[in-house]
Design brief:
By secondary structure, the protein is an all-alpha fold. It has one domain. The chain contains six helices and no strands.
Length: 121
């Protein structure tokens, strides 16, 4: 879940950059734009990765409380920054890295608690 979501988002971003400028106006440009988007392999890989994320997220919610799963999944913010830097060549400022570190520290605190506080139904 922590890797599939960010990977899907990065692949979608890369795919949209590969597709180039997209025109939605005039209306006759919508179909060629849609074809250009759906012919991009990175977009399909991104969609597959996001489906994997969704399934993993549902599985995690089936055995742990939402108040545990959601903060724990925030580790993905760090993964997204690293992937954005390595795969997309984005520059990440020290202030943004500091923010990601604060989020990851919060995840560490949440991770030290019990994943379930309610009894299974």
């Amino acid at each position: 879940m922590i890797f599939a979501g960010p990977l899907g988002n990065v692949l979608l971003g890369r795919g949209m950059k590969q597709a180039g400028d997209l025109a939605m106006w005039p209306p006759r440009e919508i179909l060629p734009t849609a074809i250009k988007v759906f012919e991009t392999a990175s977009i399909w890989l991104g969609v597959g990765s996001l489906i994997t994320f969704f399934i993993a997220y549902m599985l995690a919610l089936s055995f742990a409380d939402y108040s545990y799963v959601q903060p724990a999944s925030s580790l993905a913010y760090g993964v997204v920054a690293v992937m954005g830097h390595l795969i997309l060549g984005e520059q990440i400022s020290p202030l943004r890295w500091a923010g990601i570190a604060v989020i990851c520290a919060g995840v560490f605190v949440v991770g030290r608690t019990s994943p379930r506080t309610t009894q299974p139904g």
